[in-house]
Amino acid sequence: MRLSNTLRIRGIEHQVTASLKTTAVIVLAALLFIATSQAASMSSARSVGMGRAYLSLARGVDAARYNPANLGFRDFQKKGVEFVGFGANISNNSFTLDEYNKYTGAFLTDRDKADILNSIPDEGLAFSGEAEVSALSLSLGSVALSFEGFGAAEVNLNKDVINLLLNGNAFGDSIEFNGSFSEAVGYSSVGLSYARPIYSMGTRQITAGVTVKYIHGLGVEEILEMEGLAATLTTGFQGEGRMIARTASGGSGYGVDIGSAVKLNDSYTVGISVKNFLSNISWNNSPEEHGYLFSFDTVTVDNMDEDFVVSDDYTKEIEGFSTTLPSVMTIGLAQIQGALLWAIDWEQGFRRAAGASSKPRIAVGVEYSPLPFFPLRSGFSTGGNRSAAFSFGVGINATAFYLDVAAVTGASVSPGSSKGVNVAVTSGLRF
Description:
Layout (H helix, E strand, L loop, with lengths): L9 H6 L1 H15 L13 H5 L10 H7 L11 E15 L4 H7 L6 H10 L5 E17 L1 E15 L1 H9 L6 E3 L4 E21 L2 E30 L2 E13 L2 E13 L4 E16 L4 E12 L9 E9 L3 E3 L4 E8 L4 E10 L11 E11 L2 E10 L2 E12 L3 E8 L11 E11 L1
Antiparallel strand pairs: 1-2, 1-19, 2-3, 3-5, 4-6, 5-6, 6-7, 6-8, 7-10, 8-9, 9-12, 9-13, 10-11, 13-14, 14-15, 15-16, 16-17, 17-18, 18-19
C-alpha cells in the first residue's frame, strides 16, 4: 500500500490542506525564491557590498546601525543626511538558481529526487525574506537620529515532509511534522544614538555608545505549536496533528543597542556591539489565536471516497502579548586608512528567529578606491541562516552627494550559484 505523491485521498485532501498542500506550495515558493537574515543592517549598500563585514568601518548614520560606539571617534563623526537606504533579501538554504532551472518543469527521476533531498540540510528546508528601508536619517557628530522600517519572515519545513512530497509514503513508514515552524514580524523605529570616549592615550582610544529606539509594531505572526504524525499500517493510513499560532496587527515597544570600540592606532579599529541588548514589543491591536487540529484513522484505498478525517479549526481573541527582538552580538576588526580597506566580522545570535540565527556568521570584506570618488567593494560571508555567498558593490562619492549600490551572488561569482536575491541602494548628502 502506498500513499501517492499527489495524495488523492478525499478525506485527507479536505482537512490536511494546512499541512501537506500548503507545504507543497511553500516548497514551490522556495524553489522559485519567492520569500530570507541577520541582525546587520541591509539598508547600507556599502555594508552589503562588503559582505556585511562592516562593524569597525561604519561611520555617521551607519555607525548608529552597526556600532554606536564608533560615533565616539572624532574621525568617524559625520554631518549629513541619508535620503534613503533600501535593502531586500529573499533566499533559501538548499537550492541554487541553476538547480531551480534544472528541475522546474522536468520529469524527476529517482536520482533527481535523491539529489534534491541531499541538498536539504537535516534541519529541513528553510526560506526567508527580509526588507529594510531608512529615510531622512541624520548624523551630527557624536549624535545620530535614524528612521527605519523592517520586515522579516522565515519558514522551516521538516525534511520528512519533503521526502513525502517527492516519494510518497511506503508501507511501514512514519512521517513526522515536528521541526517545522513559521514566524514573521514587521515594525518601524526611531532611534537616537550617542557615543563618547572613555579612555585616550596617544592615538589609542576606547569609546562606548548606545542607541535607544522607539518601536511601532506593524504586525506579528508566530507558530506556538506545530506537530503531527502520519503512518502507513496494514489497516490503512492513520495520523493526527495540530498547529497553534498567534497574531496581532499592531503594538509598540522599545529597543536598546550597545557597543564599545577601540582605536588601536591610526590604521586599525576593533569593536563589539550587541543589537537588541534590551527589547520589548507589546502587541495589543487585534491579538488572536488560531488553531487547527486534525486526525484520520483507517483510511484505505477502498474507503478513500468517504470522509474519515476529524478536524477542528478556530480563531479567538486573546489578551495582548509581548515579544522581544533577537539579540545578536558582533565583533569586528578593520583597517581604516588607505586606498585599500578591509574588515572582518564575527556575528553570533542568541536564538533563532525571523531575521536572525543562533549559528555564528563570519564575513570578510574589502573596499578599494582606485579613484577617491569611485570605491569598488567585494565580500564573502558564510554561516548563520544563509549559505555561503559573495557580494559586490560600487559607489560614487562626489563632494557632498554619495550613491552606493550592491548585490549578492552565491558560493561562486556566478549568478546561477545564488540561493536567493539580495540587493541594496543608499544615497545621501554630507554637510
